[in-house]
């Protein structure tokens, strides 16, 4: 089986595709970084929650997708920013609002995986993993 070059891009693609066909949840191979990204999306209101499901001899991260009361897509756009071949870093003073504050980015920092809002409050920059609106 082919070695996945970018597991984070895979996570985002599975979420994007799942929302597109209005699935209640998507399953992705578990990693701590992916769980931390999903937790940031959860804190910012873009997914309901997540759970770790034991599947045979490996763990799966199940992301429960979120829709509005009339089935509106809460996630309209989700994209990878920093990529394995081209990393993107952001100092705290360079962080801009995403879509007038309706969107967020998720960062990897020395102190965990915050949203851009949380990182700004904590006064830390880091690697810009993805953005969502």
TrEMBL record:
Superkingdom: Bacteria
One of the GO biological process terms: translation
GO cellular component: cytoplasm; ribonucleoprotein complex; ribosome
Keywords: Ribonucleoprotein, Ribosomal protein, RNA-binding, rRNA-binding
Keyword rRNA-binding attached: yes
Single GO molecular function: structural constituent of ribosome
InterPro entries: Ribosomal_uS8, Ribosomal_uS8_sf
Presence of the UniProt keyword Iron-sulfur in the record: no
HAMAP family documented for this protein: Ribosomal_uS8_B
Assembly, per entry: Part of the 30S ribosomal subunit. Contacts proteins S5 and S12.
Family: Belongs to the universal ribosomal protein uS8 family.
Annotated protein name in UniProt: Small ribosomal subunit protein uS8
Lineage: Bacteria, Pseudomonadati, Planctomycetota, Planctomycetia, Planctomycetales
């Amino acid at each position: 089986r082919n070695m996945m070059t970018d597991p984070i891009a895979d996570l985002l693609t599975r979420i994007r595709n799942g929302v597109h066909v209005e699935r209640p949840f998507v399953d992705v191979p578990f990693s701590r970084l992916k769980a931390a990204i999903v937790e940031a999306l959860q804190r910012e209101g873009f997914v309901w929650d997540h759970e770790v499901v034991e599947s045979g001899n490996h763990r799966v991260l199940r992301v429960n997708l979120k829709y509005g009361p009339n089935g509106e897509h809460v996630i309209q756009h989700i994209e990878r920013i920093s990529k394995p071949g081209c990393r993107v870093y952001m100092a705290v003073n360079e962080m801009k609002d995403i879509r007038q504050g309706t969107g967020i980015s998720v960062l990897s920092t020395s102190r965990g995986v915050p949203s851009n809002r949380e990182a700004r409050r904590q006064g830390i920059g880091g690697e810009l993993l993805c953005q969502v609106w």
